[in-house]
Write a structure and sequence with these properties.
The protein is of the alpha+beta class and about 400 residues long. Helix content is about 45%, strand content about 10%.
């Protein structure tokens, strides 16, 4: 039986109080759109407000928002929230945002959706975009404390949800330890892995090690030797990508994709097995057992990285991977830290959080300039591309494990 994690929205303050919890941060200079399926809240989308406000720029911006909304095939309505501090001092927040609102209304109507309501929210005040009753909506607006004190916000806090002031996931406690002895161990481990990385045997042993880590009830508790092995495996780019695919789609897909890319070009019989630290050793495989053959023609790593395959990712394993990578990133800097930050950024993008993804990918680039995967993913995020899994109600990540009514 699945626990009922639904919460009930009674007032606009509840909806506006829910948004920061859904995003993980209080939006700034942002448009937040929430799709509706009848009386149930659907997808939550956050996009930076446009810098240019010409009619042409607003029309192009609104069309892009419409494409995002269209991804929720079950939606019949939408809510809009504009988070900005512009115009409040002069009591003109609504007039300032009205051209953008009107452009969005045209796009929403064109796609057959109903705009149920819209609000403007600043640092101190908020107000409905449509209310003209000064008793209900006095100038410049109602105090933001009403949102912070809302029933739903209190319930989210009670459930353990926290809201960050900015999209900064990394704090002083996440700074890496610069340990030369640990890095020598990691470098030596990498040398051994590079000798074996193109053998199917070593590849599958590496996947088995990571499977054991991701499925552990206490992921993240590693000694120095184990941490060095895991970090070194992420410095082999083909293995790094395979770990991502393993977590999201399973070992069969990871092996099939590797086969399709032609990773394996050495005779396994001429190579030894991986030397795996005792704390990471996976259960020995059954005699003669090997990952079953599959149609590798359809298993491309790129489809997994874009959230196009499988239909539903393994969110439990991806969450476990994120925790493990956070720990490994603190063990030292360098290429391995750039890899951990990049994959964590990808996980945030898959969850629908472009803000957190950008921060982690930026940190990855700062750790190692020109880290290619971080550059590629940063460009995907910059273009506003939505992860395929985030477009479907059935496959999207659910922060609270349930729906909001």
């Amino acid at each position: 039986m699945t626990a009922d994690n639904r919460v009930t929205v009674f007032r606009p303050e509840d909806i506006l109080g829910f948004i920061p919890h859904a995003l993980g941060l209080w939006p700034k200079e942002s448009l937040v759109a929430i799709t509706l399926r009848g009386q149930t809240l659907g997808a939550t989308i956050r996009v930076d407000l446009p810098g240019e406000r010409s009619d042409r720029a607003l029309a192009a911006y609104s069309r892009r928002i419409g494409e995002y909304l269209e991804a929720d095939h079950d939606a019949d309505g939408v809510l809009l929230a504009f988070f900005s501090d512009d115009g409040w001092d002069a009591g003109g927040a609504v007039p300032h945002g009205l051209p953008l609102l009107e452009a969005l209304v045209r796009v929403v109507d064109h796609r057959g959706l109903v705009l149920r309501d819209a609000w403007f929210i600043g640092s101190d005040y908020w107000r409905s975009a449509f209310c003209t009753d000064v008793e209900c909506c006095p100038l410049p607006g109602r105090p933001v404390d009403q949102i912070l004190d809302s029933r739903l916000n209190a319930e989210m806090v009670f459930r353990g949800s926290n809201v960050l002031e900015s999209p900064l996931l990394l704090g002083p406690e996440d700074e890496p330890v610069r340990d030369p002895e640990f890095m020598r161990t990691e470098d030596a481990t990498l040398g051994e892995l590079l000798r074996l990385w193109r053998t199917r045997k070593a590849f599958e042993e590496m996947l088995d090690v990571w499977s054991g880590v991701l499925d552990s009830s206490r992921p993240g508790e590693f000694d120095g030797e184990a941490a060095a092995f895991l970090r070194a495996s992420l410095r082999v780019s083909a293995w790094r990508d395979a770990v991502v695919v393993l977590a999201a789609a399973g070992k069969t897909v990871a092996c099939g994709g590797a086969e399709a890319f032609g990773f394996f070009d050495q005779d396994d019989d001429e190579q030894g097995s991986l030397v795996v630290p005792p704390g990471l050793c996976p259960p020995p495989p059954a005699a003669g057992k090997r990952t079953p053959a599959t149609d590798v023609s359809v298993l491309r790593y790129g489809d997994v990285l874009l959230g196009l395959y499988p239909e539903n990712p393994d969110w439990r394993r991806l969450t476990s991977l994120d925790r493990v990578l956070a720990m490994l990133s603190r063990r030292s800097g360098g290429e391995a830290r750039a890899a951990t930050l990049t994959i964590r950024g990808w996980i945030q993008w898959c969850r629908g959080s472009g803000s957190f993804a950008r921060e982690l990918l930026s940190q990855a680039d700062a750790e190692q300039r020109g880290y290619r995967l971080a550059e590629l993913l940063a460009e995907v995020v910059r273009r506003g591309t939505v992860c395929g899994w985030a477009k479907s109600k059935s496959s999207a990540w659910r922060k609270f494990g349930g729906a909001v009514a």
